[in-house]
């Protein structure tokens, strides 16, 4: 990998039937290089990448006779290192690039087969607040669009109800709701969010959320008062002066 690749983890499984399997996790948005041979193009006869993604199956290949195939057409490309070794380049990796990448390279001494199980990780956007529901105070903690799903806990410890929502782009939103008992002080309550992207968990203190409906009514009343005041001023100006 080059300096622009952000690798979270790579796990290699011993070769089975001549195929070496690697499970690789990369940071969302990083540039990724997948290597399936240390042979140079002076030794390689052809390289074929068969790629199975969530929304499509495609192929990228190249031979020593300068014949290339690219049915992916999404920015992925075969490149060479300064030493002449071939690798597959994935720019700005996204959830659409998650999948299985099988590579076969044939060289003068034999062939090599690799299978990369590629995944991405992304930190969620976190928020926390307090809201009133049925004369009760509820603390809400939300970790939005992370991959994998974040884990949420409360301090002091509380049993919050947790919901997970799968987003269309492959990420997961997690929300935990904790109903506060009468003797629980909201000022001492914190929400703790754990995610593998972070070296340390995130801690948030939920604050009371504004009642949007009340704020809307207040704004409506203010607007009405302003309009009525303007109309009254105009009406008074149009009144004929009494002699």
UniProtKB/TrEMBL annotation:
<keyword id="KW-1133">Transmembrane helix</keyword>
<feature type="transmembrane region" description="Helical">
    <location>
        <begin position="214"/>
        <end position="236"/>
    </location>
</feature>
<dbReference type="InterPro" id="IPR003599">
    <property type="entry name" value="Ig_sub"/>
</dbReference>
<keyword id="KW-0472">Membrane</keyword>
<dbReference type="InterPro" id="IPR040012">
    <property type="entry name" value="CD200R"/>
</dbReference>
<dbReference type="Pfam" id="PF07686">
    <property type="entry name" value="V-set"/>
</dbReference>
<dbReference type="InterPro" id="IPR036179">
    <property type="entry name" value="Ig-like_dom_sf"/>
</dbReference>
<dbReference type="Pfam" id="PF08205">
    <property type="entry name" value="C2-set_2"/>
</dbReference>
<comment type="similarity">
    <text>Belongs to the CD200R family.</text>
</comment>
<keyword id="KW-0812">Transmembrane</keyword>
<dbReference type="InterPro" id="IPR013162">
    <property type="entry name" value="CD80_C2-set"/>
</dbReference>
<protein>
    <recommendedName>
        <fullName>Ig-like domain-containing protein</fullName>
    </recommendedName>
</protein>
<keyword id="KW-0325">Glycoprotein</keyword>
<keyword id="KW-0675">Receptor</keyword>
<dbReference type="InterPro" id="IPR007110">
    <property type="entry name" value="Ig-like_dom"/>
</dbReference>
<keyword id="KW-1015">Disulfide bond</keyword>
<feature type="domain" description="Ig-like">
    <location>
        <begin position="14"/>
        <end position="121"/>
    </location>
</feature>
<feature type="domain" description="Ig-like">
    <location>
        <begin position="124"/>
        <end position="205"/>
    </location>
</feature>
<dbReference type="InterPro" id="IPR013106">
    <property type="entry name" value="Ig_V-set"/>
</dbReference>
<dbReference type="InterPro" id="IPR013783">
    <property type="entry name" value="Ig-like_fold"/>
</dbReference>
């Amino acid at each position: 990998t080059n300096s622009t690749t952000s690798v979270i983890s790579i796990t290699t499984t011993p070769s089975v039937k001549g195929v070496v399997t690697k499970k690789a996790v990369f940071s969302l948005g990083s540039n990724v290089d997948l290597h399936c041979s240390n042979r140079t193009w002076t030794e390689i006869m052809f390289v074929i990448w068969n790629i199975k993604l969530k929304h499509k199956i495609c192929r990228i290949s190249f031979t020593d006779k300068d014949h290339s195939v690219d049915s992916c057409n999404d920015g992925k490309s075969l490149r060479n290192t300064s030493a002449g070794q071939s690798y597959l380049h994935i720019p700005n990796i996204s959830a659409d690039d998650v999948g299985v990448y099988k590579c076969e390279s044939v060289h003068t001494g034999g062939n090599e087969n690799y299978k990369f199980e590629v995944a991405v990780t992304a930190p969620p956007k976190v928020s926390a607040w307090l809201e009133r529901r049925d004369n009760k105070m509820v603390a809400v903690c939300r970790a939005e669009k992370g991959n994998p799903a974040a884990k949420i806990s409360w301090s002091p410890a509380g049993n919050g109800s947790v919901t997970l929502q799968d987003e269309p782009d492959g990420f997961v939103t997690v929300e935990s709701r904790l109903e506060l008992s009468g003797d629980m002080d909201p000022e001492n309550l914190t929400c703790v969010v754990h995610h593998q992207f972070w070296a340390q968990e995130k801690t948030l203190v939920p604050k009371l959320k504004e009642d949007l409906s009340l704020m809307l009514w207040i704004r409506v009343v203010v607007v009405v008062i302003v309009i009525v005041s303007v109309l009254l001023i105009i009406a008074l100006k149009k009144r004929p002066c009494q002699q």
